[in-house]
Design brief:
The chain has 136 residues and is mainly α. Helices cover 49% and strands 6% of the residues.
Length: 136
């Protein structure tokens, strides 16, 4: 359940997880289009799709689905924020985004209010003085 990306951001290869839902969608796409060299070919089938074409597709998809918020390939960073909110460590997120430097990943991730409010202070994890006094 891994996708191997041959030429990701910056021309670097990377691996990302493959959700069962996405696998189902990709199989339907594959059966309909049957691409040869690239899963998502560009106008010339021997070349990959350009980033501008991906963004145009996202824009059209947004209109077709009636989504009010902006939708683009750059949305990977909100994907990363959702992973962070679910407790995923920064290192796997860094690898998924293809960042060489962990600081680059941290710059794009926004801490949600939910995560901020659910963070427990180390002070609250210390034993209470009353409990300590009762033990003596």
């Amino acid at each position: 359940m891994i996708i191997n990306i041959r030429e990701g951001k910056g021309g670097h290869p990377r691996q990302v997880m493959l959700s069962p839902k996405l696998l189902e969608w990709l199989r339907a796409y594959w059966n309909q289009r049957q691409p040869k060299d690239w899963l998502f070919p560009g106008m010339r089938s021997d070349r990959p799709m350009y980033a501008s074409a991906v963004n145009a597709f996202c824009h059209q998809l947004r209109k077709n689905l009636g989504i009010g918020k902006r939708l683009s390939a750059h949305g990977m960073h909100s994907f990363a924020s959702h992973l962070l909110d679910r407790g995923t460590d920064l290192r796997p997120i860094q690898l998924l985004l293809g960042h060489c430097d962990l600081e680059t990943t941290a710059r794009y991730l926004h801490v949600s209010e939910h995560r901020l409010h659910s963070t427990v202070s180390p002070l609250d994890q210390l034993p209470a003085r009353e409990a300590e006094a009762k033990k003596k």
